[in-house]
């Protein structure tokens, strides 16, 4: 019915239309914009101490389950300060044309053929929830999607549930016999989440100190170290450590690295850092097993020596991801950065030449999407404080909702 010339024209037209429309759609449509959290603080630092803490934990493998549960234990949930944990099991899409998202709370009364893949993970978290009634609420989900769009499932759920932090496992697993590298595309998923998440993000590197069944006991303290330099990410890590410090079997050691005769580039960040340090000291140093230390470092060599001296002192290390790259403390570290998603300090602790035996949680505070004129980059992400006037007061009773708009209008 169609001659050869007409068929050729139709085929060429289809190829040209596809070739032109695909890049145009990529330029005009950016899915990450819907995760932009302007005027909405989704951080641990700005979470009210008397409110429910909402976390989103990602599970790539069954081996991640005990790690997340043990991290939940040391997060010190109480009836007065409960934790609502949203757990999402992420699976690679195979043999389907469209991604699939399953809420297991809605599917509880009916059997789903896809629930069997996540059954052991769901049961583990449900048992933990039953054992900690009135302190922990767990909501379970399964997302079956290709690796290229898997981060959209995570970010969309975090936005809908208004979580304060997304916890994602590192793309490598440490076993007793050495390092077992998981699927490489998971590293790209983690980097996409860091770039687009509407709340804070924590990359959890388990070296075995969180996967044990008896990592938290009443016979000994679980030792946590916080490396604090400066900036929003370090404050977010300290805010999480402050929650853990309230656990009766947790010991927190805050190590602050100070550079003598150096002024902070942004005064408001320096004031925020001082406020967070004072709040931690006032709340926790009355307890003898919590420790605060200051270490003076002039250059990257002294900083590395201080961090190396802490390698075998803790079971878990918390630290911020982003720091000033032009700081004298990071000269030369750019050339040896094996895992940029962990930042300078996190990469130093997790790299192959490190002797660290502790687990590591690298924290990035919620960031805001703004345009940037730098060549080669059309988007730039900043912490929330970077976009606000420095004259705005900051204190324990100040929230962004104290404005003429009102909370309800901002939520809309």
Automatic annotation (TrEMBL):
Instruction: Identify the keywords attached in UniProt to this record, alphabetized.
Output: Ion transport, Membrane, Potassium, Potassium transport, Transmembrane, Transmembrane helix, Transport
Write down the InterPro entries for this protein, in alphabetical order. Answer: CHX17_2nd, CHX17_C, CPA2_transporter
In the UniProt record, does the keyword Transport occur? yes
Q: Which GO terms describe its cellular component?
A: endomembrane system
Share an example GO biological-process annotation for this protein: inorganic cation transmembrane transport
According to its UniProt record, what is one Pfam family this protein matches? Answer: CHX17_C
Show where the Cation/H(+) antiporter central domain sits.
Answer: 85-209
- The residue ranges of the Cation/H(+) antiporter C-terminal domain are 223-366
What residue intervals traverse the membrane?
A: 6-29
KW Ion transport (keyword) present: yes
Protein name, UniProt field: Cation/H(+) antiporter like
